[in-house]
Amino acid sequence: MYNALIKGFSGENPIKGFEFYVRMLRANIVPDNLSFPFLVRACAQLEGIDMGIQAHCQIVKHGFENDVYVQNSLVYMYSMCGDIKAANEVFSRMLSPNVVSWTSIIAGFNKIGDVEMARELFDKMPERNLVTWSTMINGYAKNNCFEKAVELFQVLKDKGIKANETVMVSVISSYAHLGAIELGEKAHDYVVKNNLSLNVILGTALVDMYARCGSIEKAIKMFDEMPERDVLSWTALIAGLAMHGYAEKAIWFFSKMVNSGLKPRDITFTSLLSACSHGGLVEKGLELFESMKRDYGIEPRLEHYGCIVDLLGRAGKLAEAEKFVLEMPVKPNAPIWGALLGACRIHRNAEIAERVGNILIPLLPEHSGYYVLLSNIYARTNRWENVETMRQMMKEKGVKKPPGYSLIEVDGKVHNFKMGDKSHPEIEMIERKWDEILRKIRLAGYTGNTSDALFDIDEEEKENALHRHSEKLAIAYGIMRTKAPAPIRIVKNLRVCEDCHTATKLISKVFRRELIVRDRNRFHHFREGSCSCMDYW
């Protein structure tokens, strides 16, 4: 009876499970090997390592430390609590670890980000079940190893193993991050053909995938087809619309969600305020921010304050944005100051930028983006002495700018381009194609804008560097290997620079191609010489 109660409470109310274990001991009832797995699982639910160690002591005291089921629960508990050393010690002492033991230790290494060790153990396993495959694929996805996640999914399919809904959520999320819509559509087909249940989590993953891959129309269609939706499903769609710059539509769907009886969460407002920021809807954004606590009892978090700073800053209300930051009831963090600095770049306000930089750089001295942003602001206002100071500070602190990369999917394969990287097998043809593109857009009025280039090289080098930015190589490859009317879809890890933005607008006009570019902040839909962001990003 006590075991049943410990088991019953171990999931939803773990503390209660402990209480019944203590009551069992006080009733002079000796626990058996079935008492401990669920007691230990309660510790894992709480991620309470101290309670877990006490439970482990009880296991040793009662002589069950060599029971395989109890050992499995200990490996799982230590793994979920992040103590991989303890988990590995228990695992290595097991005489006959089973598939559950292996899966738990693999999950533990994935949790701390050591996917290489997790994969090493996965490959050593004498036998695997679908949960093991799911754990490894999910581990790759959670640790941003998206290409490895989809490669392992392909291995699973090649072995004739049918994936379940959990596996497909990880795979579809990986395609979303890679911007691989063709592969994402194939995954959607796999779900349909294998009669997998289109539950809320899987349906939401598909909505997110289509939105992140640049097809907001398919995201809306998928959302409409979902048999059941929760607040996260609505939030995924609102976030997708925000990324694409459809602020009015995002607000419309938010109103529809509220009218359906669902209460928005804090993450819903983050997406909604982001939509207002990208759409320039200042008054509406401020109104929604005020309604958070007033109408829904949601206390604004730092992300929400950051959205308001971005909203005011992008609209050119820099003094108002600075005042808002200084009067915040919570201490502003680096991203909030960074949003204000980004607004200073858009509106070329070196005065406020300098004040912000003096606060921001000591907060995150290793963050290269803030040095580069501040240097570019100084360069645009011809404050070359300050540019040199920034360059020197970066040099002294060993700060380096992270390399930009761009992804493009062609015929179901994702190609990765980096500036200066010559590893692509067709790089010579790609560079020749870019030179041809460059000649044509120059005839249409293109002149290189070097203001966002590296600030410690001369103008000629800057121009050469700009012409080899990763998205330009990806666009050249897209024009080489795809045909109209198919859009060229690019995913970039950094913000699109002004020169690439200008060049891409002209490419869309000269070559009569639609280009959909996802950068760190939002989507840009380039058609016939203009961009959906209206040069407001």
UniProtKB/TrEMBL annotation:
GO molecular function: mRNA binding; zinc ion binding
Annotated DYW domain residues: 445-537
GO process annotations (BP): RNA modification
PPR repeat extents: 98-128, 129-163, 199-229, 230-264, 265-300
Keyword terms: Repeat
Repeat found in the keyword field: yes
Domain of life: Eukaryota
UniProt record similarity statement: Belongs to the PPR family. PCMP-H subfamily.
Name of the protein this chain belongs to: DYW domain-containing protein
Organism whose genome encodes this protein: Gossypium stocksii
